[in-house]
Write a structure and sequence with these properties.
Rossmann fold, four-stranded parallel β-sheet, 9 helices
Length: 349
């Protein structure tokens, strides 16, 4: 018998039901079980999959690092039992979870795909059914397992599949709140595309590891992300950090290629924050592009203060990478060094 795939349900729209039990009526709420969610598609029970779920089935707005740890634990305990893993997840925070898992799951040589839906799977026009079945098929047809017919290369990564594209998880972003083409990978080409055939682009994949799989569970969420905007009041920012020892890192989303205001008050505030021991990570507000220190005078000052260049990392990757590194290391210089390194395919220098 072929090796099975493990479906891990965390909740989200794909597995939600209407509160009064009728399609299109009543507010959406998390289902109590997968059987309840797929009651209109009984054939799904016949797939070569097993099912697990997290201790809480949630709207993904309630996603937390504790649940990331729980998901990683389910994968670690079942890593050698299954061919791959499909995680059902709400779309709002899917990119955060995919990014976090990409840093936590070390030496990953199997495929982990997160997918979801813009409409619940119990509804007739749900996009969830296609997303789920294609995610399963991508893993089912991989070449290093026996399968009759089309074979696909193994994708040794944490990915997101949505609509027609397979994206690297820590490069993906939700860019549309309702369209079925809800996700994109602005700074990295898709890993695969699904039409009448599924194509996987091997040259874009991470390399397999020769080391044993394990999970890094340490996460420290004590960070803050701030967007700059015209007339930004640096005094407000300073008050947040004044005599505050809990915040360990600041992700600063700057203009364009990493530019910041050049007024004295703003730069003094950043220096105050850096001198207090907080690590500053500089990423761009632009969806496409990268931080380029030295390109303009407007980004030289923040570099001199000691901010780390986040290159083309997405906000979701920057946040979760920061949490991961703060949990793993105590040496601030080591954290700064690793923030600027490509450790899971999350940035391009």
């Amino acid at each position: 018998m072929k090796e099975k795939i493990l479906i891990i349900n965390t909740g989200g729209t794909i597995s939600m039901i209407h509160s009064d039990g009728s399609e299109g009526k009543g507010g959406l709420k998390p289902s109590k079980s997968w059987d309840e969610a797929i009651q209109n598609y009984q054939f799904l029970k016949k797939l070569n999959v097993d099912y697990a779920q997290t201790s809480q089935i949630i709207d993904s707005s309630d996603m937390s690092y504790e649940l990331w740890i729980e998901i990683a634990d389910i994968i670690e305990k079942n890593y050698n039992k299954y061919k791959g893993f499909v995680i059902l997840h709400g779309t709002d925070t899917m990119s955060y979870t995919a990014s976090a898992l990409s840093f936590m799951l070390k030496n990953l040589n199997k495929t982990v795909i997160l997918t979801g839906a813009q409409r619940p799977i119990q509804e007739m026009r749900s996009d969830g059914l296609q997303n789920l079945l294609t995610s399963i098929e991508i893993i089912e047809k991989q070449e290093n397992f026996q399968y009759n017919g089309e074979k696909l290369p193994v994708v040794p990564e944490v990915c997101i599949f949505f609509r027609d594209h397979l994206f690297r998880g820590n490069r993906s972003r939700k860019l549309d709140s309702s369209n079925y083409f809800g996700f994109s990978s602005p700074n990295y080409l898709p890993l695969g595309q699904a039409g009448s055939k599924i194509n996987i682009y091997e040259e874009r994949l991470m390399l397999k590891s020769s080391e044993e799989f394990y999970v890094d569970y340490e996460i420290n969420p004590d960070i803050l992300m701030i967007d700059l905007f015209p007339s930004f009041n640096p005094e407000i920012l300073k008050r947040i950090f004044y005599k505050n020892n809990e915040i360990k890192g600041l992700v600063l989303r700057t203009y364009g290629s990493g530019n910041t205001p050049q007024n004295k008050e703003f730069l003094n505030t950043l220096k105050y924050i850096a001198d207090s021991g907080v690590i500053i990570l500089n990423i761009t507000q632009c969806t496409i592009g990268s931080v380029e220190p030295g390109l303009y005078e407007a980004n030289e000052a923040i570099t001199k203060i000691g901010a780390v260049n986040g290159y083309d990392m997405t906000p979701e990757a920057a946040i979760t990478k920061f949490m991961y590194l703060l949990g793993k290391y105590t040496d601030k210089e080591k954290i700064k060094e690793k923030l600027g390194e490509n450790i899971a395919g999350e940035l391009t220098k």
